[in-house]
Task: structure prediction
Amino acid sequence: QVQLVEFGGGAVQTGGSLSLSCVGYGEPYNLNLMAWFRQAPGKEREGVASTDLNGYISYADNVKGRFTISRDSAKSALTLQMTSLKPEDTATYYCAADPKWSLRLRAADFAYWGQGTQVTVSS
Result:
């Protein structure tokens, strides 16, 4: 089994920065692919950024240039640095992982999920 534990989040004003962290526990092969998703009230869960063990990275268009995903594979740790935050970034952010090797950013492709952490950006 895999357990994903998220840290960070909180409240910030428009233009501010926040950092999210996630640590994965379980068989390493289940953590080949790791990603961040978010879900705002009344909206579908959407991909934010993903990365694989080859170092490939994918970002959603609406966060490119503002968010940076990184991972420490030795520690099964994933980080999301968020800058220039906007009110529309307000959501519950989830860490996700999957044994798949190819890079992707669709919620249905991920088997394991964290409990979520809230990010609130006020105007």
Remarks:
- The mean pLDDT is 95.
- Residues 14 and 123 are 5 Å apart (CA to CA).
- The first strand starts at residue 3 and ends at 8.
- The two ends are 40 Å apart (CA to CA).
